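Consider a typical record:
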Amino acid sequence: MFIIIAIMFAGVGIGYMFRQIDFLHKTEKTITYTIFVMLFILGLSVGSNSMIVRNIGQFGWQAALLALFSLMGSILAAWLVSNLFFKKGGNHEE
């Protein structure tokens, strides 16, 4: 897990250093399609695993709870980051 996070941070650092290169701005369009293909392949892998298919009821509830708590944690973290780092000082117009 730490290797994956380290690779991601290395990519962020390299991307920051080379942010002026036009080619890197064009790769943003392909990222969405790459994620779609990876999700499709993940679905094929899950669908071909007979143990997962037989126990989908039990795994489904666990996956739904995990997704729900992950979503709530992400929303909370985004709210905290927004309030701590992106608030304009002094003049709050709501």
Notes: The helical segments are 2-17, 22-26, 28-48, 50-54, 56-85. The mean pLDDT is 86. The two ends are 42 Å apart (CA to CA). The chain is about 80% helix and 0% strand.
